[in-house]
Amino acid sequence: QSTPPDDALYRALGGTPGLTKLMADFVPRLAADPRIGEFFKETKLSELQKQLVDQFCVVSGGSCVYEGETMKNSHAEMKIRKADFNALVEVLQESMDRQGIPFSVQNRLLARLAPMHRDIVNTR
Ligand code: HEM
């Protein structure tokens, strides 16, 4: 018998409805960000938004299926610096603030995203 997934963080984020609202705010802000908006100029934002909802659901312990690419493959063609990664995290924090997500919940999510920098940041 397998242990049930710990979905406490997923629930604290408001489940799929909460994540859907969060990404609806976050993705347009990313695309408009003066520091990193340029990266997204060829991106179909509605598709990215959907992939992010699924990915954040999985990362936070919800029972979703993420069908997108690995972080390594999806970012390989872009030259992403640590500063770009940090800028994205800042925009995400702004969006989480706007959704009223408590700071402790924000930090639990960010702790699960942080290790992804190894696959995403590929340029000095
Ligand atoms: C924790 C940090 C990040 C996470 C969790 C993340 C997650 C994702 C996901 C799930 C996708 C979709 C992959 C797919 O459709 O198969 C994606 C695509 C993309 N990411 Fe990230 N990403 C992160 C950081 C960054 C950073 C720092 C940049 C650039 C500043 C960036 C730029 C992009 C772009 C431009 C695409 C779309 C590629 C396309 O048009 O198909 N990402 N990311």
Verbal overview:
The chain is an all-alpha fold. The chain has a single domain (8-120), classed as Globin-like. 60% of the residues lie in helices and 0% in strands. The protein contains 7 helices and no strands. The chain has helices at 8-12, 15-32, 45-59, 71-75, 82-98, 103-113, 117-120. Helix 2 (15-32) packs across helix 3 (45-59) and helix 2 packs across helix 5 (82-98). The longest helix has 18 residues, at 15-32. The protein starts with 7 loop residues before the first helix and ends with a helix. The mean pLDDT is 96. The structure holds protoporphyrin IX containing FE. The site of protoporphyrin IX containing FE has 21 residues, from helix 3, helix 4 and helix 5.
Fold blueprint:
Blueprint: H1 8-12, H2 15-32, H3 45-59, H4 71-75, H5 82-98, H6 103-113, H7 117-120
Helix pairs in contact: 2-3, 2-5
The protein binds protoporphyrin IX containing FE.
Instruction: Give the proportion of residues in helices.
Output: 55-70%
Ligands in the model, by name, code or SMILES, are:
protoporphyrin IX containing FE
Largest sheet: none
User: What is the CATH class designation?
Assistant: Mainly Alpha
Indicate the structural class.
mainly alpha
Please tell me the total number of domains: 1
Task: Return residue spans where pLDDT drops below 50 for at least 5 consecutive residues.
Answer: none
Can you tell me the overall shape?
globular
SSE series: HHHHHHH
Residue fraction in strands: under 5%
User: What is the level-2 CATH architecture name?
Assistant: Orthogonal Bundle
Radius of gyration: 14 Å
Number of helices: 7
CATH homologous superfamily name? Globins
* Number of beta strands: 0
Q: For the terminal residues, how far apart are their CA atoms? A: 45 Å
Mean pLDDT across every amino acid position: 96
CATH topology: Globin-like
Organism: Methylibium petroleiphilum (strain ATCC BAA-1232 / LMG 22953 / PM1)
Keywords: Heme, Iron, Metal-binding, Signal, Transport
Binding site for heme: 75
GO molecular function: heme binding; metal ion binding; oxygen binding
